[in-house]
Specification:
homodimer, alpha/beta, 5,6-Dimethylbenzimidazole Phosphoribosyltransferase, Chain: A, domain 1, Rossmann fold, 2 domains, 6-stranded parallel beta sheet, 9% strand
Chain lengths: 377, 377
């Protein structure tokens, strides 16, 4: 019996794990946010002069419910999966690169390993649907739902049951990390061809034209891009995902690792953990999560502005402003890892800066001309 | 005999320190840059997918002359000075805040201390012209040229001899840091009212209207802003700085700490040390430095985009694209310290990522459709 048939038989249609997690997502803690606003005004700097870092400190307080938040325990979760649509030649790289890059992550040689080491984040790799079996490794979580999705150009990527199972896996993976100790989490992805389902998700959920939300991925040429656009249009035509039903969109034109990231976001929000959203694929997962359950949006911090043109469309829809603009288009959670020091800096400034009173520094004056004249020799 | 008269008598008109330093500024190392470009193409990521971080790694290699650069030894130099023009009521804070904030830096309680600790940079405070004597401290370098500049609304801020002395002090301060061990340096400033001379410098050197390059500084109101604009216009009218002569502009409408930062930039470039330029005041110093000696531009990395409206004008003139856009307007070197981890990340990725060959990862294919079909089941 293959793995999909088994899932259909064994799992109930309504997931208690998902509904229970969504019920546990609470509004931001307004009292903690007010306490941070009040403290920010007393720190030795002109009010508001740390700009977005001040806003970040307030947001992290609201998420965590702590007025002096610490972000010491960091993790980047990289979800991996393969995509049947790779068969359409929509990526510049062959599908065998997915398991090869997972091995590279486990060996510590990928960009995400470098940036995670720098910022002191642990890296967890989760196999949600890589097309081959992977050898066991202490950093590898095996939650394989299937050996790659089906080709969205010909039918749905996943059944609803498979999509739910992948979301549940994501929830449970983040719950396990919370158990180990976690203050902030970053999303990452690996899956050759996964910008194609991500663009399909954006087009389906936002109603934007496919051309406006489809980029070059890892670097296809003009002809490849036209093929990719045509493939996505065909996938939307054949599957007709319901824009009012995020799970339907996710199952029909998404991917196992994208569904896993949706679960990660739900699980982190339920655990009051700030979620740093990486690039295009992670943001597609975030869009599915926020369309599915809008309150989750408040728990998200957008790391960076990807080169992929559909990224901005999603961020604007979620009203998230990315922290970095470095022309990244790598995925893996690299942008999330690079943004983490800024979020930590925001909390460090809040905790460690002296107040005007503590430092004996004069506050701003109501009438600078008068004081200026007094100081004139 | 006051300090200014002494300087006039003791120092030669032509500074050998400055001319010698400028002669030592060499072009970027093209061989090191080519080696980095070649290595970037072999690392396990789509070519160019790390965007500006790849460009940064190439630039740092060109600056340092090293194809595998390390940026372990970091310093932020905060130059402090007072401004006679504070008497015009152009700042929201009284001038006494300058020495109070210097004390805050030395006690480790300011934002720059927090961010420098986070990124592992040492903080050096240099008194180039604070209006009062400061108690000695191991982290404080006393290179006081005068007790605050003269009021630019009524005449030149400094004599040419004083301005040169401040530039020389900046050179010598960075040379001392290079002696201690230095891989990268960030600029910082402290000086109540110093956005006023900075705006005057931008207007003088770029010919832009004063209104277009004058912002709210630490937070003056609309009336204060109008007073600030009128003061800058008066300063330019009375002093008539020569836009073709950066030293003339610096002396007439600049400041001691700004001149010190010009020297810091010269000294760092001569020592092949990358210079991370902080916000508005630091960038005014960078503009003076690049107008004075254009080759120095290649040694500069713009940290962030300040809220101060004149900042963008300067960055565009120097063709520098800032790394961060966080709505900062604090100075002190805070933006420089926050940008350092990104520059370090660029070098870490270059050094620590596996190549395709090392990791056994397949490279991109010429004909993705063919391979895609082969993989199809």
């Amino acid at each position: 019996m293959n793995i999909q048939v088994r899932l259909e038989l064994e799992r109930p249609v309504m997931s208690h794990i998902i509904s229970h997690t969504l019920q546990n997502i609470e509004p931001l803690d307004m009292a903690a946010m007010a306490a941070v606003r009040e403290r920010q005004a007393r720190l030795t700097k002109p009010a508001g002069s740390l700009g977005r870092l001040e806003e970040l400190s307030i947001k992290v307080a609201g998420i965590t419910g702590k007025s002096m938040p610490h972000l010491d325990r960091k993790a980047i979760i990289v979800m991996a999966g393969d995509h049947g649509v790779a068969a359409e030649g929509v990526s510049a790289y062959p599908a065998e690169v997915t398991p090869q890059m997972v091995q590279n992550f486990l060996n510590g040689g990928a960009a995400i390993n470098v940036f995670a080491r720098q910022t002191g984040a642990r890296v967890v790799i989760a196999d949600l649907g890589v097309a081959v079996d992977l050898p066991g490794h202490p950093q590898l979580v095996n939650r394989k739902i299937g050996y790659g999705t089906r080709n969205i150009a010909h039918g749905p990527a996943m059944t609803l049951v498979e999509a739910r199972a992948a979301v549940e896996a994501g929830i449970q993976i983040v719950q396990a990390e919370i158990q180990k100790g976690l203050d902030i989490i970053g999303t990452g992805d690996m899956g050759i061809a996964n910008t194609t389902p991500s663009s399909a998700i954006v087009a389906a959920l936002t109603g934007q034209e496919v051309e406006r939300v489809t980029g070059r991925g890892t670097g296809i040429d003009g002809q490849g891009w036209e093929r990719k656009v045509a493939t996505i249009k065909q996938a939307l035509e054949i599957n007709r995902p319901d824009p009012e039903n995020a799970l339907d969109v996710l199952a029909k034109v998404g991917g196992f690792e994208i569904a896993g990231l949706v679960g990660l976001i739900f699980g982190a929000a339920a655990g009051r953990i700030p979620v740093v959203i990486d690039g295009f694929i992670s943001t597609a997962a975030a869009l599915v999560a926020t369309e599915w359950h809008p309150p989750v949006r408040d728990y998200l911090i957008a790391a960076h502005n990807s080169v992929e043109i559909g990224h901005r469309v999603m961020l604007e829809r979620m009203e998230l402003v990315p922290l970095l603009n470095l022309d990244l288009r790598l995925g893996e959670g690299t942008g999330a890892a690079l943004a983490m020091p800024l979020i930590e800096a925001a909390c460090l400034a809040l905790r460690e800066m002296a107040t005007f009173n503590e430092a004996g520094v004069s506050e701003r004056e109501e009438n600078p001309v008068e004081t200026g004249r007094k100081l004139q020799k």
